[in-house]
Input
Amino acid sequence: MSGALVLVVDDEPEITRALRSILSGHGFEPLLAATGEEGLEILVRRRPALILLDLGLPGIDGLEVCRVIREDRQLDVPIIILSAHGEEEAKVKALDLGADDYLTKPFGVRELLARMRAALRRAGNGRATGQAILEHGAIRMDLERRAVTVDGVAVHLTPKEYDTLRYLLANVGKLITHTALLWAVWGPEYADARPYLHVFIGQLRKKIEPDSHHPRYIVTEPGIGYRLADLPEA
Output
């Protein structure tokens, strides 16, 4: 990850100065853009490894930038949203459009770097959906046999539980909104069935978590969705 290009798209001079200093000080090469249009131009020309994207941009806003990037399969780059307090709806829309994660301003340096490392690891590992075996911690999913084990012990999952876990395993560390998960597993007609999803996730946790009341794997992002947590490196 050392020397990786990181594109910062933000129109606040204080934020961009701070991020340039942080990124440079931790071995990254920052690229700065103050507008969405400028950010897209730099993205196509320089092909950064990661984008830190503000939502409240002049001209093309962060949502439109995110939409343009995700509609072009050649621009497959992790996006971390930088959001201000009070932008909850826009933040959720950005995640549903395909952003990988978000940080609310002001954010800590350690959290920023941790989120960046996680996003870069996922990008470097490629999309897990093409693999025959998905593994995370003690969880192992054999896609050909549709078999799941936890600590080597077989776990029986319903078809929807299996599809939910598979989707989460294919997006380890990525924040998945309620809407995105409901669409992916149940279909668009269930997009508003959040109370049902809460109960369903609770049932899945009982089957895969060491302690379902203190989840290690499926963690809740209040009001937004769930993520399959990155585990500490050995």
Q: What stands out?
A: The first helix runs from residue 13 to 25. The CA atoms of residues 172 and 228 lie 5 Å apart. The mean pLDDT is 88. The radius of gyration is 18 Å.
